[in-house]
Structure formats: structure tokens, C-alpha cells
What does this fold into?
Amino acid sequence: MAPRLSLVVTTIGRVPEIVRLARSVQASPAAGDAELVVVDQSPDGRAVHAVEELDLAVPVRVATSRRGVSVGRNVGLTLAEGDLVGFPNDNSWYPPATLPALIDRFDGDPRPDGVMALVSTADGRPAMLRWLQRSGPVGRLTVHRAVVSPGLFLRRRLVEELGGFDERIGTGAPGPAQSGEESDLVLRALDRGARVVLDRGLVVHNDDPRDRPDDRFVTKMAGYGVGQGLLWRRHALPLPLLAALVARKLVAAPVRAAHGQRLLARSDLAWARGCVVGYLSRESAP
It folds into this structure.
């Protein structure tokens, strides 16, 4: 019997993190309805070996691919058998109640086509986004406050109809746009009339890199900014809204610096510059 939910994760050998994720799936009351699809992009396949050694009751499908989170997810989708799919980061994990509640959410309503869970740190702080304060439908103007990969769950048929993730964008992509692949997917879905909702009662945990920033984080945020700017141009989102997001970072940077958070200040400026670069890029829409 095919699983209801396929969890497709791409990793580059982050063993402790992928083991934590796998164990959280195993511990879920919905473990019997789920499968884990691991696409390992490390040269020695260390993450796959670590998961296989756990001898989980949850089915595990494994693959390798060239670099790029979007590439890995697309490869994983070819193996997925669930009618629902989720896209955890390798440093994500699930509280026990999340996966069964998610399946019930889809079963209780033939629409939505996608459900977005709130992403938080282990101690309950909202992570990765400035989240919408209420549950409800996600629209073109709220994607940036409601959609991020670890909390995104979609009906697999919709992802297949959309052709999967754009491999030119996202972490590890060959170009400068190192984010935005999940928002691009959702925006394409919305353009087709799909309904995606944010349910803040569903929670996925994820480590927050802002808790321990370093110079690599500044570089990463520059690439994330490029992805955001490109996304804005590609989907013709309102330029004043992007300008407001950039202005917020420009205001935040000196405040952070004044409080001794110099790396976070630099990362804010890098993101803002990246947004401008991404928006002015000449890349054509897919």
C-alpha cells in the first residue's frame, strides 16, 4: 500500500541533522502513512548510509543527484509515491502531532491544493520569515510571509503538473539566485487557480542560522536576496512592496550594528543589495 505522504529532503552529508529528521518521522503517529525520500549530494553518500543504519520502520527511498536543492527535490519527486509531498530541509524536524494533523487537514477538505505550516525553532520562536499573524489563504502579495520549504505540503499531482521546481534557482543552483524556488512553485500554482492555505496550528521545527551567524551567512543572505528580487521581477509582483522590504533591511542594519550584531547587520545589507541585483537581472521567465 502506497504511503499518503512523501517527505523529500536534499542534503549534502549533514548526518546529525538528517538523523534527527528521520527519527522525528519515525516517532510520529503518522509514521505508517509516510515515507522519507533522501537525495544525498555528498560525494560519499554519508547521509544515506546514516539513515539506512537507523533501520527505520518508515520506508526510506534514496537517490543521489548533482548539486542544487531544486535538482535534488525534482529527483526525489520521481521516487515519491505519496499523494501528498513535503519538502523538509535537512535541518528540519517534526513535532509528533504535526504529520497526523496535516494529513487530517487534507482529508477534511478536498481543497486546498497545498497547506503551509508555521516554521519555528525548537524553543518556539517563528523562524525564517516575518509570518502572517493569522491562518488563511495565501495570495500573491502574501507568499513572502507565508511560504518556506520546510513547512510546505502540496498534492503531488499539482507539483507534477507544474513540472517541479525550477532548477535555476534555490540553494546550490549554478547562478546567483540562491532562494525562491518554493515561492516560485507556489506562485505558479496560484496562477493556475490552486488554493494554498497557511495553517498556523501546524508547526515544523527548523534551526535558525541567525542564532549563530558567520561570514558564510552573509554570503548566503546575498544569494537569498538575489532570489527574492528575481522572483519579484519574474512574477510581476508590486515593486513598492519589494522596496518596502529592502527599506526595512536598510533601517534594521544600523540598529543591529549599534547593538553589536555586526554580522547580522552585514547580512541585512547583503540581502538588500541582492534584491536589487535580482530584480534588475535580465533572466527571462520560465
User: Anything to note?
Assistant: Residues 212-280 form one domain. The radius of gyration is 18 Å. The chain has a mean pLDDT of 94. Residues 215-234 form the longest helix (20 residues).
